[in-house]
Amino acid sequence: MINRTFVVCLLLLFASLAYWYSTQPIILGDGVKAPLIPYQTSPSFAQKHQYGEYQVTEVADFVMTAKVLAREDYRFDRGADLSTTDFVFGWGRMSDETVLEFIDISQSNRWYYWRASKLIIPKLEIARSSANMHLIAATEAVADIIDDIKVGQIIALKGHLVNVSSDDDFSWNSSLSRFDTGDGACELIWVEDISIEPY
Questions:
Q1: What are φ and ψ of residue 137, in 5° steps?
Q2: pLDDT digits (tens, 9 = 90+) for 22-50
Protein backbone atom coordinates (compact mmCIF):
# COMPACT_ATOMS: atom_id res chain seq x y z
CA MET A 1 0.00 0.00 0.00
CA ILE A 2 1.37 3.40 -0.99
CA ASN A 3 2.17 5.63 1.94
CA ARG A 4 -0.13 8.69 1.99
CA THR A 5 2.70 10.98 3.12
CA PHE A 6 4.79 9.85 0.15
CA VAL A 7 1.94 10.67 -2.26
CA VAL A 8 1.45 14.12 -0.73
CA CYS A 9 5.18 14.83 -0.97
CA LEU A 10 5.22 13.67 -4.58
CA LEU A 11 2.29 15.94 -5.45
CA LEU A 12 3.98 18.88 -3.75
CA LEU A 13 7.16 18.16 -5.70
CA PHE A 14 5.29 18.11 -9.01
CA ALA A 15 3.47 21.33 -8.08
CA SER A 16 6.76 23.00 -7.20
CA LEU A 17 8.36 21.89 -10.45
CA ALA A 18 5.36 23.11 -12.45
CA TYR A 19 5.52 26.50 -10.74
CA TRP A 20 9.27 26.73 -11.28
CA TYR A 21 8.86 25.90 -14.96
CA SER A 22 6.05 28.45 -15.41
CA THR A 23 8.23 31.26 -14.02
CA GLN A 24 11.34 30.57 -16.10
CA PRO A 25 12.21 33.25 -18.68
CA ILE A 26 11.62 32.47 -22.33
CA ILE A 27 14.88 32.41 -24.29
CA LEU A 28 14.53 33.66 -27.87
CA GLY A 29 18.20 33.89 -28.83
CA ASP A 30 20.43 36.64 -30.12
CA GLY A 31 19.30 39.63 -32.14
CA VAL A 32 16.83 42.50 -31.86
CA LYS A 33 13.33 41.01 -31.52
CA ALA A 34 11.29 44.23 -31.24
CA PRO A 35 12.93 46.88 -33.43
CA LEU A 36 10.33 49.66 -33.32
CA ILE A 37 9.77 52.21 -30.57
CA PRO A 38 6.23 52.38 -29.14
CA TYR A 39 3.94 54.56 -31.26
CA GLN A 40 1.48 57.05 -29.87
CA THR A 41 -0.81 59.68 -31.36
CA SER A 42 -3.28 62.17 -29.97
CA PRO A 43 -6.70 60.52 -29.70
CA SER A 44 -9.32 61.64 -32.18
CA PHE A 45 -11.76 61.50 -29.28
CA ALA A 46 -10.64 61.39 -25.65
CA GLN A 47 -12.99 58.69 -24.46
CA LYS A 48 -13.71 58.21 -20.76
CA HIS A 49 -14.24 54.87 -19.06
CA GLN A 50 -15.73 54.11 -15.66
CA TYR A 51 -13.69 51.44 -13.90
CA GLY A 52 -15.23 50.75 -10.53
CA GLU A 53 -14.85 53.96 -8.54
CA TYR A 54 -12.31 55.37 -11.00
CA GLN A 55 -12.65 57.62 -14.03
CA VAL A 56 -10.21 56.64 -16.79
CA THR A 57 -9.53 59.30 -19.44
CA GLU A 58 -7.67 58.53 -22.66
CA VAL A 59 -4.85 60.98 -23.41
CA ALA A 60 -3.12 59.19 -26.32
CA ASP A 61 -3.60 56.22 -28.62
CA PHE A 62 -0.81 53.71 -28.05
CA VAL A 63 0.59 50.75 -30.00
CA MET A 64 3.64 48.72 -29.02
CA THR A 65 5.51 45.54 -29.79
CA ALA A 66 8.16 44.85 -27.14
CA LYS A 67 10.10 42.22 -25.23
CA VAL A 68 9.10 41.48 -21.65
CA LEU A 69 12.15 42.14 -19.47
CA ALA A 70 10.48 41.75 -16.06
CA ARG A 71 7.07 41.54 -14.42
CA GLU A 72 5.81 42.27 -10.94
CA ASP A 73 2.33 41.55 -9.61
CA TYR A 74 0.68 43.85 -7.07
CA ARG A 75 -2.28 43.10 -4.83
CA PHE A 76 -2.23 45.44 -1.86
CA ASP A 77 -1.43 49.00 -3.01
CA ARG A 78 -4.08 51.46 -4.22
CA GLY A 79 -2.99 51.03 -7.80
CA ALA A 80 -3.90 47.33 -7.66
CA ASP A 81 -7.56 48.37 -7.90
CA LEU A 82 -6.71 49.23 -11.50
CA SER A 83 -3.48 47.50 -12.48
CA THR A 84 -2.41 44.26 -10.83
CA THR A 85 0.68 43.80 -13.02
CA ASP A 86 3.58 46.01 -14.05
CA PHE A 87 5.91 44.98 -16.86
CA VAL A 88 9.31 46.25 -17.86
CA PHE A 89 9.33 46.28 -21.66
CA GLY A 90 12.29 46.70 -23.99
CA TRP A 91 12.59 47.54 -27.68
CA GLY A 92 15.45 48.19 -30.07
CA ARG A 93 18.69 46.82 -28.66
CA MET A 94 16.96 46.34 -25.31
CA SER A 95 15.18 43.40 -26.95
CA ASP A 96 18.48 41.71 -27.85
CA GLU A 97 19.57 39.01 -25.41
CA THR A 98 23.26 39.59 -26.20
CA VAL A 99 22.75 43.02 -24.57
CA LEU A 100 20.32 41.92 -21.85
CA GLU A 101 22.63 39.21 -20.49
CA PHE A 102 24.75 42.00 -18.96
CA ILE A 103 21.82 43.94 -17.46
CA ASP A 104 20.11 43.02 -14.20
CA ILE A 105 16.53 44.33 -14.01
CA SER A 106 14.33 44.51 -10.93
CA GLN A 107 11.03 46.08 -9.86
CA SER A 108 9.74 47.39 -6.56
CA ASN A 109 6.97 49.73 -5.42
CA ARG A 110 5.90 50.39 -9.04
CA TRP A 111 9.43 51.41 -10.04
CA TYR A 112 11.96 49.71 -12.29
CA TYR A 113 15.72 49.53 -11.67
CA TRP A 114 18.59 48.32 -13.78
CA ARG A 115 22.25 47.60 -13.19
CA ALA A 116 24.78 46.67 -15.86
CA SER A 117 27.77 44.45 -15.22
CA LYS A 118 29.08 45.65 -18.57
CA LEU A 119 27.76 48.53 -20.67
CA ILE A 120 27.21 47.08 -24.13
CA ILE A 121 25.05 50.06 -25.11
CA PRO A 122 24.99 53.61 -23.67
CA LYS A 123 23.08 54.34 -20.45
CA LEU A 124 20.85 56.80 -22.28
CA GLU A 125 19.86 54.13 -24.78
CA ILE A 126 18.96 51.75 -21.97
CA ALA A 127 16.72 54.42 -20.42
CA ARG A 128 15.10 55.37 -23.73
CA SER A 129 14.61 51.81 -24.99
CA SER A 130 12.90 50.37 -21.93
CA ALA A 131 10.17 51.36 -19.54
CA ASN A 132 8.09 50.19 -16.62
CA MET A 133 4.43 50.17 -17.63
CA HIS A 134 1.24 49.72 -15.60
CA LEU A 135 -1.39 47.77 -17.53
CA ILE A 136 -5.14 48.18 -16.98
CA ALA A 137 -7.08 45.39 -18.67
CA ALA A 138 -10.10 46.75 -20.53
CA THR A 139 -11.75 43.30 -20.63
CA GLU A 140 -11.57 39.96 -18.85
CA ALA A 141 -10.11 38.39 -22.00
CA VAL A 142 -7.25 40.90 -21.93
CA ALA A 143 -6.73 40.24 -18.21
CA ASP A 144 -6.44 36.49 -18.89
CA ILE A 145 -3.72 37.06 -21.50
CA ILE A 146 -1.82 39.42 -19.19
CA ASP A 147 -1.84 36.70 -16.52
CA ASP A 148 -0.16 34.30 -18.98
CA ILE A 149 2.67 36.59 -20.09
CA LYS A 150 6.16 35.43 -19.16
CA VAL A 151 9.48 37.21 -19.01
CA GLY A 152 11.33 36.92 -22.31
CA GLN A 153 8.28 36.82 -24.55
CA ILE A 154 7.43 39.33 -27.26
CA ILE A 155 4.02 40.96 -26.86
CA ALA A 156 1.98 43.25 -29.08
CA LEU A 157 -0.58 45.55 -27.51
CA LYS A 158 -3.00 48.28 -28.53
CA GLY A 159 -4.77 50.69 -26.28
CA HIS A 160 -4.51 54.14 -24.81
CA LEU A 161 -2.32 56.03 -22.40
CA VAL A 162 -4.65 57.26 -19.69
CA ASN A 163 -5.05 59.46 -16.65
CA VAL A 164 -7.07 58.14 -13.73
CA SER A 165 -8.97 60.01 -11.03
CA SER A 166 -11.53 59.27 -8.33
CA ASP A 167 -13.94 61.23 -6.17
CA ASP A 168 -11.61 60.98 -3.15
CA ASP A 169 -8.89 62.92 -5.04
CA PHE A 170 -6.80 59.89 -6.00
CA SER A 171 -5.01 60.45 -9.30
CA TRP A 172 -2.61 58.44 -11.43
CA ASN A 173 -1.32 59.88 -14.70
CA SER A 174 0.56 58.32 -17.58
CA SER A 175 3.84 59.55 -18.93
CA LEU A 176 3.52 60.80 -22.50
CA SER A 177 7.21 60.52 -23.36
CA ARG A 178 9.62 57.68 -24.02
CA PHE A 179 12.53 59.88 -22.96
CA ASP A 180 11.68 60.71 -19.34
CA THR A 181 13.03 58.91 -16.28
CA GLY A 182 12.29 58.86 -12.56
CA ASP A 183 9.04 59.70 -10.81
CA GLY A 184 6.12 59.95 -13.23
CA ALA A 185 7.98 58.33 -16.12
CA CYS A 186 5.89 55.15 -16.27
CA GLU A 187 3.15 54.60 -18.82
CA LEU A 188 -0.35 53.85 -17.55
CA ILE A 189 -2.09 51.91 -20.33
CA TRP A 190 -5.73 51.03 -20.90
CA VAL A 191 -5.14 47.80 -22.84
CA GLU A 192 -7.84 46.90 -25.35
CA ASP A 193 -5.94 44.22 -27.25
CA ILE A 194 -2.84 42.21 -26.38
CA SER A 195 -1.20 39.12 -27.82
CA ILE A 196 1.85 36.99 -27.18
CA GLU A 197 3.81 36.85 -30.41
CA PRO A 198 4.91 33.44 -31.74
CA TYR A 199 8.58 32.49 -31.50
A1: -80, 125
A2: 456 798 989 999 999 999 999 878 899 99
